[in-house]
Sequence to fold (561 residues):
Amino acid sequence: MATPQQQQALKPPVVAPVEGSEVPKTQVMPKLDAKNLDFYYGSFKALHGITLSICTNKITAFIGPSGCGKSTFLRTMNRMNETVRNSRAEGEILLDGENILAMDVTDVRRRVGMVFQKSNPFPKTIFDNVAYGLRVNGVHKRSVIQETVERSLQHAALWTEVKDKLSKPASALSGGQQQRLCIARALAVQPEVLLLDEPCSALDPIATLKIEELLFQIKDITTIVIVTHNMQQAARLADYTGFFLMGKLIEFDDTRKIFQNPSKKETEDYVTGRFG
Amino acid sequence: MSTHTSVTRKLVNAVMLSLSAVCTVLVVGVLFFILGYLLWNGGRSLNLAFFTNLPKPSGETGGGMANAIVGSGKILLLATAIGVPIGFCAGVYLSEYSGKAFAFTLRYTVDLLNGVPSIVIGIVAYALVVRPMKHFSALAGGVALGIMMIPIAVRTTEEFLRAVPNSLREGAMALGATKAKTIFTVVVPAAIAGLTSGMMLNLARVAGETAPLLFTALGNMFWSRGWLQPIATLPVMIYNYAIAPEEDLHQQAWAAGFVLLTLVLVINVTARLIIARGPAGSSRR
Fold:
């Protein structure tokens, strides 16, 4: 298995190796395929030819020092970066074989959900927060909404805590609960991919643990990509891990390999704490 | 440091402190003086007839300003219906859509409009509405005050929408909401308390305007039907009665001033209360 690198654009998309007992024997399908992706903020090139594949129903983590491009890459996968003036992406990101850079943007964002670093519940009730995505996507049938809200909250491990106060404002929840609410809100539109941008960086260890547990649970229903500053979190959670440095994808491989036996010197320096 | 400079420093400090304290008292004092003076003069002449009766023909005493109270209400309603939607939409554009350079131009234009003397706005409404229709009307007065409300409506909307954290916009868009849906289902509701109170303060500001009404709404000693007749308003009534020779009319002008100020203060205080409580479901104060 060759180490994936950005120069391998002409070869078949790199799929992380199937090894170890935690990977089912069923085929590992790529859900998202980035091919030679460059990203610019004005004249600054933030991403240099990123090529990698993200597998269906797996957790993929991106690590790297601040400003290395991992969040930029994440935010390119649902085109949130487009809101930045003078930014542009070159290359391809295929979602089930279709280039998202050419798709309808609201369609992309419905299929590729996102949870942000700082929880951002709307100033609405708990129920309306979770129902929001359904309503803006044209679902208005009360029974469907009710059912989806309950299921999403259950997936986000929040149902038992909020089921008696669904009409309370979301701001009444604790920080960890608010972040789980945002996860429930993202899950309600049944995204095929869920992007999480350092979702636990503002939470205490107990709230973090709850989120990690729920991510383990929901990887059966969606594909998860998480950016984290916390290397232990990547090691605990992720099936595959990518290491970014200065806008380049240095190494992308099975998580165990990245942390125990990385192929690149830069990766080793970073995961052993000799760098950054 | 010598003792001399230390004494000087303390002296300067004492003088400056007393100066600023005196100025503060002056600022607060002016409001309370006006309030007290109006209460003293206007409160005495205020009675039920003031609220229920029409003005008496000149020479007779008594009567009230029922038509002017309703008239002011009608004109302010019309002004709100004209000024708030235009200002709100422009404010949304300014905050959510426009590019930097154009926003600068637009903001500057709006500030200039805000600085146009109210009497000039009155002339504009005269030219736009009164001249073509060939008579004074409530409509013309409403247009004049409506134009006056636009600048503040724009800036209020822009500022309160800008204060909504960007993370909320991102959250909505990440769920597949279009930009317009994001604005109207998340951004505006998050700012609704501020917007409401801002518009109320805006209304309170134009409620006392007299000059633009003089040659648009004109005035009326009787009830005004519909929107196309000349109409009485409190500020114009005050103006007319205050320059009249009869002492009885002066008393009524005081009463009208008191009513007008009370109305403006009530709107002000309500607006502040709304903004202090914030939107339902928001933790942001």
In short: The radius of gyration of chain A is 18 Å.
